[in-house]
Amino acid sequence: MGYFVNKTIWLTGASSGIGEALAIALAKEGAQLVLSARREDELQRVANLCGQAKVLILPMDLADIKDAPAAVDKILSSFGRIDILINNAGVSQRSKAIETEVSIDRMLMEVNFMSALTLTKAVLPVMIKNNSGQIIALSSILGDFGLPLHSTYAAAKHAVNGFFESLAEELSDTGIGVSIISPGFIKTNVAVNAITGSGSRYTIDSPAQQKGMPADVCATKILDAMMHRKRKKYIGRIELLFVPMHQYAPRFFYWLMRKLSKG
Ligand SMILES: NC(=O)c1ccc[n+]([C@@H]2O[C@H](COP(=O)([O-])OP(=O)(O)OC[C@H]3O[C@@H](n4cnc5c(N)ncnc54)[C@H](OP(=O)(O)O)[C@@H]3O)[C@@H](O)[C@H]2O)c1
């Protein structure tokens, strides 16, 4: 491909799932990587899967970012540049709105939305100075509609869409590209790792995820969207039809969702 060779790419949520698959795929393409998530041991495991690629492990809790500019300085002192930021980290939800503690709502907004905004604002001055760079935001088809048990997760992904679409327009006259990636069902532990209303881990896998697109296939499609500097890209299988169905046939959409949720 050549596009990613020697690019410095900061990837959040790199310790599992789509982020792990992205790290491996980008390493194969010759990128140098900065891997962030909370679990340092898992980041090290992923770094070991990245072959000869230069990797900086930068653990951080995105629910409580202490000093994003200091993290940017650390990357610049290791690599001298930041070409691409991929805001991939996320945590899903399995709880009714009424049963979700407000502190959990805040955490879901922090990890799924505010962290992406915060890191983006920290790297943008570097990219603006160079008049080049790319910001990638992982949204979801739940950025287009809401579903029971996902209220704050869906709200955060709607916020991702609104913020990054506006930012893309603000940067349209510059050399900086912004891409929103909206996956459907990808085979990862996102459902197992989802948070309940009291903040415990849900621990139960979802059949939709189990039957979903493999994470490495998803990663290849994300790389393609990045290379083509796509503004918006949906990635998944038949579930992507939910998006136009929700827009053009909402009564049928909600009938179908209730039917599917009853199994
Ligand atoms: N899988 C799907 O079907 C699907 C569909 C639509 C959208 N997405 C989106 O795709 C992205 C990746 O999800 P995935 O499916 O790969 O799920 P995953 O396997 O659960 O990975 C989530 C990643 O986010 C990190 N993370 C979670 N909370 C964090 C925190 N407080 N601070 C720092 N890092 C944190 C996790 O690392 P640590 O636990 O080590 O911190 C992990 O690396 C998410 O934004 C998700 O919303 C996924």
Q: Name the assembly state.
A: single chain
Number of domains: 1
| Class by alpha and beta content | alpha/beta
Mean pLDDT: 97
| Percent helix range | 40-55%
Number of helices: 9
Intertermini distance: 43 Å
The beta-strand count equals 9
Bound molecules: NADP nicotinamide-adenine-dinucleotide phosphate
Biggest β-sheet, characterized? 7 strands, parallel
- Spans of at least 5 consecutive residues whose pLDDT stays below 50 are none
Q: How big a fraction of the residues is strand?
A: 5-15%
As for the CATH topology, it is Rossmann fold
The CATH homologous superfamily is called NAD(P)-binding Rossmann-like Domain
Shape: globular
Order of helices and strands: EHEHEHEHEHEEHEHEHH
In a nutshell, what does this entry contain?
Helices cover 45% and strands 15% of the residues. By secondary structure, it is an alpha/beta fold.
Description:
The chain is of the alpha/beta class and 263 residues long. It has a single domain, classed as Rossmann fold. Helices cover 45% and strands 15% of the residues. It is built from nine helices and nine strands. The strands form two sheets. It has a seven-stranded parallel sheet with strand order 3-2-1-4-5-6-9, sandwiched between helices. It has a two-stranded parallel ribbon with strand order 7-8. α1 crosses α7 (215-227), α4 packs parallel to α5 (151-170) and α8 (242-248) packs across α9. The longest helix is centred in the middle third of the chain and has 29 residues, at 102-130. The radius of gyration is 18 Å and the shape is globular. It starts with 7 loop residues before the first strand and ends with a helix. The mean pLDDT is 97. The structure holds NADP nicotinamide-adenine-dinucleotide phosphate.
